[in-house]
Amino acid sequence: MIIVTAGHVDHGKTSLIQALTGMNADRLPEEQRRGMTIDLGYAFMDLGDDNRLAFIDVPGHEKFINNMLCGVSHARHALLVVACDDGVMPQTREHLQILSLMPLESLTIALTKCDRVTADRVSEVQIELGVWLAHAGMLQGVSRQEFIVSAHTGFGIAELKAHLQTLSESVQTTVDSAPFRMVFDRVFSVKGAGLVATGTVISGCVNKEDKLYVINTASGSRSGLNAGAHKQQVRVRGLHAQGRESNFARAGDRVALNLTGNDHDIERGDWLSSIAMPEPVSRFAVVLSGFMPKHWQSVHLHHGASHQLGRIALLSEAPLTTSSANRKEYLAELVLEQPLLPAAGDMLVVRDACGRETLGGARVLELEVPTRGKRTAERIEYLTELAACIQKANKTPLLALTVSCSRKAVSIAMQAWSLQLSEAELQQHLGCDNRGRSDSTGLVSRGDWLVSRTLFDGFKTEMMARIAAHHESNPDELGLGRARLLRVCHSGLPTALVNQAIYEHLAAGELVMTRGQLHLPRHAIALSADELPLWQTLEQMFIQSRTPLWTSDICEPLGLSAKQARALCYKLVQLGYICALLKDRYILSDTLQAGAAMILAHLEEHDAVSTSEFCAGMQMGRKAGIQLLEWFDRIGFTRRLYKANSRTLRDAELFEYLRPIKTPRQAQMPEPNHLSIAATAMSAHLSAHLSTNRAEGLSAGVSTGI
């Protein structure tokens, strides 16, 4: 258990901790010389049974408010110190305001220096403090206990120590199942040990030899830190918990970790986690409370042990309907100059642009925000519903996850970090099978993406309707490709989920894919009575030329205009009869497959095929041969060697069915040259894959040519 202090400068916070623990929390020589806390200090009080209570002593001076905010970040228990002679001072009020933003479970109040004042003055301070506590609305449900003490005479110290011991015993010490997470507030080197980083465990637990991920939210802005350094993995070589050497630490413990494996500098404000963290974000949705925000207001934002400058982008000027009359809340987005990595539910402290006044808090709702439609009624309704899930005392991650998935597809990695779920917990929550379906939770996952079954089925219905409408308006087109289908549907789903929807339709027989085009099973295209003789004439032209033809080459023989010739060729491409090498230049599909078969046969005996060998084998001109080879390069079938005029295979599976299958007798016979191998490949396999009405003519033409 950790207790953080709060209070005005020179109200006796450090002296009170020393009276409780016997340890001076002022570790810096400058602090001891000036008698004033500058940076965070630490002390420990033995409770017996090998238990210890940790204290974080924060500075009370307004110039060191950044250090104070670092110390109280994610605080659960606080000790508010108020001197009886001064009473409630400016930093007392600001520290109390900051504590009201933290997820406090208990607040202990110590009225110090009682030996310097009368009993009436103590009563006046108690009344004054009660008024300010009443203004801190967020502290209404927090258990409070008040003590009158004097660190100089020892008055009330025993009672305060007994209370703290009872409070420590009442805190549950069960191991948190959430992933481990902490932020570094001190980083230094120890001779003989190496790098040591200290902080407070926010959630989860850590053991020696654990491998954890360290992240720098500046993402490479510091000197010597490259773009990929923010996800380096480190190993816990040694561990101290609550000021003692240990093998284990849990949430709420003060720890010092001896880390190894870091390749780059680690500094205060960096994070450590047991799960792989996504990219830091510089824009995220929040709920603002404690002040009346203005649109595009410049502010200081404090999270963990770091703070950034940013602006407030109000999403709605009206307060949330769930907010109370005396504590209004507003939906907004924070736009930061440097990225941070908060989790959903984290509270950021908002201060004015000059850094002189604490305005209020910003509770994180969502890390992934849209670029458009930020202020639509649907978006506001969604964020309001999400805020209700996040702000509940006993929030269930599955509830917030379901709300997010009901409106859009979400990244599983981002949701795992945002909701602080381990991979095992996330899979347990999802309950998805190996095909990405989850009947129990109504969610669908594919790859790193997750969406609700309702939204997913809606996209499937929309997709089928768009394909049917396309068939009706374009009867001469075979169907739609995946990319064009996405554009037509105006879907925001990622490619992995779109592929899952297409797969389910294909598996159910509701869609058919032909030559990369998606269409309904009942839809087919065919040449009309007028187009059929044109195709027969054009086919013979291709066979006789053995080379690709330009659109201008076929206009005069067929008696067509350029526009009519292009329309005919487009339909023939849809049917798979020809293929477009370039704009307005086409080649017979059979000739294209013959070229692929020749390359496969040649490369079984050679490391590469040169352009001259390919052109000679295909009996093509060099220009046409190069265009065909470049087409093979574009589809990924071949790869041109560097500074060479030859090619090797890149993806043989594209034309694997064209490989010749040798009989045992053929395997024993001596092989002729590579051109004869190509001839054997084409004569044996093209006849099995080409249409019957063209097989004899093409086989004769190819065999004669080679």
TrEMBL record:
Keyword GTP-binding appears in the UniProt entry: yes
Any one GO molecular function term: translation elongation factor activity
PROSITE patterns registered for this protein in UniProt: G_TR_1, G_TR_2
Subcellular location: Cytoplasm
Stretches assigned to the Tr-type G domain: 1-173
Record's keyword terms, sorted: Cytoplasm, Elongation factor, GTP-binding, Nucleotide-binding, Protein biosynthesis
Source organism, top-level taxon: Bacteria
Signal peptide: none
A Pfam entry, by short name: GTP_EFTU
Keyword Glycoprotein: no
Gene3D superfamilies recorded: 1.10.10.2770, P-loop containing nucleotide triphosphate hydrolases, Translation factors, Winged helix-like DNA-binding domain superfamily/Winged helix DNA-binding domain
Function: Translation factor necessary for the incorporation of selenocysteine into proteins. It probably replaces EF-Tu for the insertion of selenocysteine directed by the UGA codon. SelB binds GTP and GDP.
Protein name: Selenocysteine-specific elongation factor
Lineage: Bacteria, Pseudomonadati, Pseudomonadota, Gammaproteobacteria, Alteromonadales
Gene behind this protein: selB
